[in-house]
Amino acid sequence: MLDELVLDRLGGLAPAAARALAVELPDGRRVGPGDAAVLLRARSWRALAPLLRGRIGRIARDYVEGRVELEGPMHRIIELAGELVPDTAPTAASRAGPLDWLRSAWRHRPQRDAWQVRRHYDVSDAFYALWLDPRRVYSCAYWAQPGLTLAQAQEAKLELVCRKLLLRPGLRLLDIGAGWGALLLWAAEHHGVQATGITLSRHQQAHVERLIDERGLRGRVQMRLLDWRDLPEDEPWDRIASVGMFEHVGRARLPAYFAKIRRLLAPGGLLLNHGITAGGTRNAQLGAGIGDFVERHIFPGGELLHVSHVLRVMAEQGLETVDMENLRPHYARTLWSWSDALEARLEAARRVADERTLRAFRLYLAGSAMGFERGWMALHQLLATRPSGRLGEGALRGAQSAYPFNRQYVYSAG
C-alpha cells in the first residue's frame, strides 16, 4: 500500500523531477527509476509520511537524526526538495496569537539568547573556516560585478555598508552582533573610525581580539562580550551597524531593540540594519516543516518578520528609514557559494564537527539558497536615522541627519 502511495507521489512531480528521484523502502524494495540522481532511503515506514505530505523540513530532520539517508549531489537534492513543496506552503499565513508573543518573549531573555547564540556560533571555528571567506563574513555578500569571487563579494558588502553609513575618520561606530569582526576591522582600516563590536560568542570574541593585536589596532578597535541590552548609554554613537543580528532578537523584543538603538544613536546619526526578512506577510515561520527544522538544528530562537513589520516597529521607536535595498538574490548566490565550499571539503569537515552537525549544515546552506531563490525569504538593508530636530537651512533644509538628499554618494565614491 505505502509503495503505491510513494509511486503516486513521485508520479505527481514534474517529469524531470520524477526521473531524478528514487525511494528505497524499509523492506529494501526500490520505487522510481534505477538511474535516479537522488536516492532517499527510508529506515522506517513512518519516515515516508513527510515525503507524501511535502514536509521537507521533517525530511531534513529525519536525515540529520538518522531515520533517512539521502544520496546524490546536494544541488539536485535541494532542487527535488523544492519540487515536493506546494508553491505557497513556505510563506502561507499562519496564526500568531498572544501565546506566540509570550513564547517569543520567553525565548529571548538574556541568558536564553546567550545560550542560543553559542549553540550556533561556537560549533567550531575550524568548521566555519572551511566554507566561509578568509575574513569569515557570515552574512550576505554583495556581488557588485558578476565575476567576483566570494571573498571579493564580501569585501564589496563591507564597503557598501561603510559607504551607506558615511564613515569617516574620527567617527565612533558600534557593531551590534559583530561576528568574527570583519566589519569592525574593515571600517577601522579603510575608513579610520573608532570601532566597537559586541557578541555573545566567546569564540568570536577571542578570534577578534587576536586579529586586533595582529593588525596593530589596539586602542582603535575593541570587541566586547556583551548583550545588547547591557550597552551603556552615556556616550552616543555616531553610527551603528546591525548585520545579521535582528533575526535573533525576536518579535516580542524588537520594539525594545530599536528603542535601545535610538537611545544609543547620536541625533542625526545613521543606523544600517542588515538582516533576513520573511517572504510572506503573515507567516510566523517558514512552513512545510522548514521553520521547525531550523529551530531544532540550526538557529534556536531565530524569528523572521516581514520587512513591513520591521519598518513599522522602527518608525514607532523614533527611527526614520531613509533608504531600503533588497539583496535577496545576492544571498542566494552567497549561500550556494558556502554550500559548494562545504561540499568540496566534507572529509575535512568530519574531522572538526560531528556527523549530525555536518548533515544539518549541508541541508541548511543549500536549502536556504533555494529559499532565497524562490522568494521564501529576503535580505533587506535598511538605512535609518535618529532625526536631530534641527531643520537646517539652504540646500540642506529639513535633512535632520547626516543622510544626503540622494543615494548617489554610495555608488560614486572612489
UniProtKB/TrEMBL annotation:
What Pfam families does UniProt report for this protein, alphabetically? CMAS (PF02353)
What this protein is called in its record is Cyclopropane-fatty-acyl-phospholipid synthase
One GO molecular function term of this record is: cyclopropane-fatty-acyl-phospholipid synthase activity
> What EC number(s) would the UniProt record show?
2.1.1.79
Q: Which residues cross the membrane?
A: none
The residues forming a coiled coil are none
Keywords for the protein's UniProt record, in alphabetical order: Lipid metabolism, Methyltransferase, S-adenosyl-L-methionine, Transferase
Q: Give the enzyme's main class according to its UniProt record, as a single word.
A: transferase
UniProt superkingdom: Bacteria
InterPro entries from the entry?
CFA/CMAS, CMAS, SAM-dependent_MTases_sf
